[in-house]
Design brief:
The structure is a homodimer. Chain A is of the alpha/beta class. The first copy, chain A, has three domains: 44 residues, lambda repressor-like DNA-binding domains (434 Repressor (Amino-terminal Domain)), CATH 1.10.260; 130 residues, 3-Layer(aba) Sandwich (Rossmann fold); 131 residues, Response regulator (Rossmann fold). Chain A is built from 14 helices and twelve strands. In chain A, the strands form three sheets. In chain A, strands 2-1-3-4-5-11 form a six-stranded parallel β-sheet, with helices on one face. In chain A, helix 10 links the parallel strand 6 and strand 7. In chain A, helix 1 crosses helix 3, helix 5 packs parallel to helix 14 and helix 11 packs across helix 12. The radius of gyration of chain A is 26 Å and the shape is elongated. The model of chain A has no long low-confidence stretch (mean pLDDT 93). At the A-B interface, helix 4, helix 5, strand 2, helix 7 and helix 12 of A face helix 4, helix 5, strand 2, helix 7 and helix 12 of B. The structure holds a DNA duplex.
Amino acid sequence: MSGKKRATIVDVASAAGVSIKTVSRVLNNEPHVRKELQDKVRRATKSLNYQPNVVAQGLVGRRSYLLGLVYENPSPNYVVELQHGALDRLHGERYRLVVLPVESVADVAGNMLALLRSAALDGVVLTPPASDHPKILEELRESGFPFTRVAPTRFPDIGPSTTTDDVEAACAMTRYLIELGHRDIGLIKGDPTHSASEARLFGFSKALGEAGIPPRLDLIEQGMFTYDSGVEAGRRLLDRKDRPTAIFAQNDDMAGGAIMAAHDLGIDVPGDVSIVGFDDSQIAKVTWPRITTIHQPVYDMARSATDMLVAMLDKKPYLPMVEHPFELIVRQSAGPRRAEP
Amino acid sequence: MSGKKRATIVDVASAAGVSIKTVSRVLNNEPHVRKELQDKVRRATKSLNYQPNVVAQGLVGRRSYLLGLVYENPSPNYVVELQHGALDRLHGERYRLVVLPVESVADVAGNMLALLRSAALDGVVLTPPASDHPKILEELRESGFPFTRVAPTRFPDIGPSTTTDDVEAACAMTRYLIELGHRDIGLIKGDPTHSASEARLFGFSKALGEAGIPPRLDLIEQGMFTYDSGVEAGRRLLDRKDRPTAIFAQNDDMAGGAIMAAHDLGIDVPGDVSIVGFDDSQIAKVTWPRITTIHQPVYDMARSATDMLVAMLDKKPYLPMVEHPFELIVRQSAGPRRAEP
DNA sequence: CTGAAAGCGCTTACAG
DNA sequence: CTGAAAGCGCTTACAG
């Protein structure tokens, strides 16, 4: 199976006529090596096509140079953005990224530390809802396992985190709908185990309160952040005779589902009903009409969280809390409320 | 930072009153250990919460228990399915998955081996177009680096692979359109560096030939497998006065883009034009109308390819070639050709 | 059935 | 400025 086997530091040392320690020094850019020897080592490295064995480096350094990314998310677009943010930060570093999707964060909460240790990870980036899970946070903190958090909404003191302001974002979106003349606004909530659902509900309520619009609790439906749950919740909301003139879905997948429900019921979007989302994920650009939404800086948050984790492991300074701005993206799925019939 | 440090095999051995070799034997289920000692070791393992250090195991075994997944794909849905297929196979194994997205396979072709080695991977699952790239295949084969291939269309003898029949699948889809009465069928090709594009073109031509329909080369447009390229190609195809009555896009993202182009031009789908895709990715279920497409067994192929790779590394037998069936999924984006106006 | 020794490929501390 | 020694935490031979 294997061809010529890989050169080791011993091979390089003997080819260069120096000790392995000198080779090590040159490779790690340590000072105090004569230029002449440096050159010899570099030449030997090149001609032998030598690459240090990360596993051996890891053993002596008691580290694996492996970082984990934990997520439980039904949206491929979200997941891929998360991964790219992390990966882009790791480009050129010795660290590699191991992906750890979990079916249900609640189910693995008790074994998180064991899981991370058995995979020999040096640290982990936690994303919602793991980044908000008290048991996981407690276990990791207590054991001293390095971690950073993406988009938490609770326990701001436990570990470094990157955030965006979910409350203000939901508030901004709701204000936009109110400005368009809507007063009967439906809400499709996300998975209740994700605390962002609460934060966005809070922002929604806040904007309503500011405008003096009485809350319509009967227009709040439970979804799960999935497309299908959006279809169902949308149908429930649109099938009633006192249906809302606008619907705010707490993510784009559900907004897309609600739009599909409207299509299926023969209700025009945004003519008869405005439907908006949250995330600015790919689906928002491919539905008809395209979805007015909040751009959530998923890529940026993942990248920053990874950056913090690397800094932590490399014992370099870093800001323990970074907030990335959101942005209201106006597309075609929301319009002014129709004049009363 | 770190709390109590992890127990090592030495700790377990002294707690159990045996040698580290005996601990090693018990952990690896080697025979010839007295029941009594086995129990002692297990108890010590449990009470110390011992987990073997994979890095140390890797160093002596000259392996890292790290597998790579290489892809260059613009579609998040495709990528996530690929990852889940691989990950699900690895569940419960010691192997972990490192994701290796590349901007352009062609760009990294010369450094693939170096990349894999520097990441200390034991093996890699190659996906299109890397799984078809002669330089990469040659380099890996020559060096003896373990790899398996997902959905290659060329060089069937180089390494184990999992496939689906792209030619027959494209043929089946084209036949379906022909049965609906279409004769002027447009084609949006995918990224030319992916050989699946050629295979699907071939299947398309074959079905046309069988039905005795003369080819309309002017109705073939180049896309890149991205949504935006589908919008553009769709617009070019639909903006002409002798526009086709049906369009076959070589993947769902482009089909979705073409549908959007139709919407923007005020052309009804499928009333005025039928538009079909390929892949059965998430986008096919969320556009309006939902897309008639070919279900490509991406998950299954990734899973099988990972299975083969693990078998190869563990020196167990495996089938070097597995074909997974495709399936025609009829939704609402294609219908009968309109009677001539 | 059990264990002492050697070694995987590096880096950390220590001498000179 | 350079190197010999020790050791990271395991497994692979090899003895008994």
